[in-house]
Amino acid sequence: MEELHRIAKPSALVTIIVPFYSHQQAHTDPTHRHFFGVHSFDYFIGGTANAGFQYSGAQFTLLSVEFEKGLAQRHWFDRMIAAFANSRKDLYENRLASLFPLRNITFELRVVK
Q: How far is 43 from 54, CA to CA, in rounded Å?
């Protein structure tokens, strides 16, 4: 995150698509070293619950967090779960993600310099 912040222009848009922690492919793919949840980038975003635990000077503004962004070709049930998850992110992540896992989560951040 520090390197992204360093090389980006002020107000640059950063889009990060990562595996969501509850999906089986997040755990079976050997290239996945880290798994992500809704609040994974809060440490870099001012005004969030985890912002006080600053690990670096890199600062971003969170523009959006979305499950299964742009994956309209998925089965209708997956689209329905993603729509619910996107409307109630914390409820989904804390109570339902293990029952109805979604594959990806997309973060859109803006660089703050």
A: 6
